[in-house]
Design a protein that fits this description.
By secondary structure, the protein is an alpha+beta fold. The chain has a single domain, classed as Thiol Ester Dehydrase, Chain A (Roll). A hairpin with a 3-residue loop joins β4 and β5. The chain is elongated. It starts with a strand and ends in a 5-residue tail after the last helix.
């Protein structure tokens, strides 16, 4: 499990001051990037010429309004891990309540052929260390 603080900015919100629905994906992806960096892999995933991890499925649940200037704890858990794919859940929490939850499913593919491949051991191990039991 990985955690980071996320602040809702005015530019993330609709005219009512509530998080615009598509913005949750930006907040989740920013957290995903920080999460990958925290794994301290020798491979720089974002600069890799070997493989990429495209998202093949995503969903979001909006449970409570998230408003301008509020700060949330984004908790990322690996909720499924396979040889070539993984699922992440991002729970945006405050005061022990989940306000929004995002799920993304990623698959490891060869950058040259864009075909599914086994993910590097280093990545698999880092994800496994964060696997929700």
């Amino acid at each position: 499990m990985f955690q980071r603080k996320v602040r809702i900015n005015f530019y993330n919100c609709d005219p009512a001051g509530i998080l615009f629905y598509g913005e949750i994906y930006k907040l989740a992806h920013e957290s995903y990037e920080v999460f990958l960096e925290s794994l301290r892999m020798k491979i720089d995933y974002f600069a890799s010429n070997e493989f990429v991890l495209p998202i093949i499925h995503s969903s979001a649940d909006y449970l409570k309004p998230m408003k301008t200037s509020e700060v949330f704890n984004c908790v990322i858990s690996v909720t499924r891990l396979k040889e070539s794919s993984f699922e992440l859940t991002y729970d945006f929490e405050r005061d022990s309540q989940i306000y929004s939850s995002v799920k993304t499913v990623h698959v490891c593919v060869s950058k040259k052929e864009f075909k599914k491949v086994k993910m590097p051991a280093e990545l698999f191990e880092g994800l496994n260390a964060n696997l929700l039991q």
